[in-house]
Amino acid sequence: MTPVSRSGPVVKNQSRVLYSSAAGTDAIAFSNTVNTSVVSPVLSVFKTASAISVSLGDTLVYKISVRNNGNVAGEATLIDPLPQGVSFIANSVLRDGVPLPGVTPSSGIPLGPIAPGTQVNISFQVIVVSLPASLELQNQATARYAFVTPEGREVQGEVSSNVSKVSLAAYLLSSFLSANTNTTFVGDVITYTLQLRNEGARTLSGLLARIPLPEGAAFIPGSVIVGNMYVPGDDPAIGIPLGALVPGASLSISFRARVTLAPPSPVLGTKAVTSYGEGDEKYATTSNLAEINVVSPGFTIRLRTDLTKAVPGDNLRYEFNVINDGNLAVDAILIDAIPSGTLFVWDSITVNGVPRKGIRPGDGIPLGTIRAGERVIVRFLVSIPAFTDIRTLPAISNQGSIQYTFLLPDGRNVRQSESSNLVMTQLFSPVITVEIANDPPIVETGGIVGFRITVHNSGNTPAEVSVIRIIPPATILDPDLVYVSTLGSHGVPYSGAVQLGTLAPGESATISYYVKVNVDYLGHIITGYCNALYTFALDTRKYSGEARSNSYQIQIEEFSE
Q: Does residue 322 carry a pLDDT above 60?
C-alpha cells in the first residue's frame, strides 16, 4: 500500500462501454463515478544502535521509533528477535521513557494505539555475551498492527524496520587486577594478581603486561609467577612477557610488593596495561583500578628529662609524650629499660597524672587503647647512686619504645613498634682523693713528726676544698710550720680546717706541717686519718661532699737514757 494523505484519500472508479451502431459508428458510453475512501494506518519503523562496534561484555542500547503516517489509529506491537551473541537486560524496555517491567523484545513490546501523525519511541539494552562467527550483530524489528474499517472489518498488517548492523572486535582481552587484601599498612606485603582471558575469536600474540606500582609500594624482586611458574627475572613495572593466548584461554600473573611508606592519599591504586598484536595491528587493554586502603596507626613518641646535667645522687625525671597521629585506634604498651647506672624510684610512674603502682618501666607500662589523635603522658623517676664514678660513667642515656597492636578490617592483627628520641644526661662532679703520709714512722715521746697531705681533683668540675682533722691525737701542731702549696706560704692559720681554695679538674694541692708528740703520752701507737670537705655548684644547684684519706700510724718508742 502506498502512503496516502490523512486529509481523506479517495479511490475513484468509472466504467466505460465501447460499442458500434448499425450505421457502423463506434462509440463509448461511460458509467457513473464511484468514490471509495481509503482508510488505513501507515507505519514506518526505524532502528538504531548506540555503537557501530562493540566488544565482548559491552552493553548496547537499541532505539526503535514507530510512526503512523496514515489517517487512522492502529493498535501495534513491536517484535524484535535479538541476534546471536547478545542477551537482553531484564526490565530495560522503555516506551517513551516509561519502563515496561517484564516485557521482552522477542515476545513483543505493546505500543498501544498509535494515532495518525504520532510516534512511539522504544529503547532497551542488551549485553554482548559471545562472538558469532560473522563478528557482526544483525537484526531487524517488525511492527505488527491492526485496525477496524468503517464497515467493521478488522485488518492486520506488519512493517519491518531497517537492518541494524553492529560489528564485533575480533581481538578481545579481558583483564582484571586484584590484591589479596583491601586494607594494608606500612611494612605489609601485598600480593597482586592479574587475570587475563582471551574473549576474542583470534589468538593474541606478543602479550606484555605492565603494572606500575603506586607511590609507597616497592616491588619484591623474584616474586613474579606466570601461571604456575616462577619468573624471578621479571619486573611488572618494566613488563612481563606472556607469549600468546589462544581464544578462550586464561592466564594468571601474580607478584608481591611491600608497603614502604604511607602515600600522600590513604589509598594505593594501580592499573595493569596489557599490550598485544602482530605486525601493524597493535592493541592494549587496561584493567580495572585495584585500590587498597592504607591505615596509618603511626606514633610520635618524644622523651625528655628535667636534667641534662646532673650529679651523682640526683634524681632524673623522665617524661614520655606519646601521640597517636595515625588514623586508627591501637592498644599500646610503653617499654623503657632503666638506664644503665641508675635505679628506678619505686611507684613513681604516672600515666596522664594517674599513679601506676607496682609496675616497672622495663616490664612495660600499659597505656590501654589510644584513639587517633589522642595523647598520653608518662612520667617516672630514676636515681643516680651517690657513689657513681663519673670517670667510668660520664653520661646517662635513655631511649624508650612504644609497642602497639591494631586490628585490620580484613581480620588481621598487627603489632608494630616505634622508638623515642635518645636523651642524654651528662654527669658532673669533682672526684676528691686524699692521701696522708708521716715521717718518721717511729718517734719517742716529745719527738717531732712531719706530715704531708695530698689532695687531688680527678673529676670534671672545680670544687672549693678544705681539709680537717690534720692533727693526730696526743700531738701539738706547730702553726708556724704549716705550708699549703696552693697558697705558697708558711704559717697558714689553723682553726680546725685548712682552706685549699678552688681545685680545678686535674689539679692537686699539698699541705705540709709538723707535730710534736706529747711528752706525757703513755701509748705505743698513734693512728688517724684526715678528711677533705668540698663544695661545688652546677646550674645554680649547690652540692657538698666529703672524702676520707688513708689511715696513718705513728709508733712511739720508750725513752731510754
A: yes
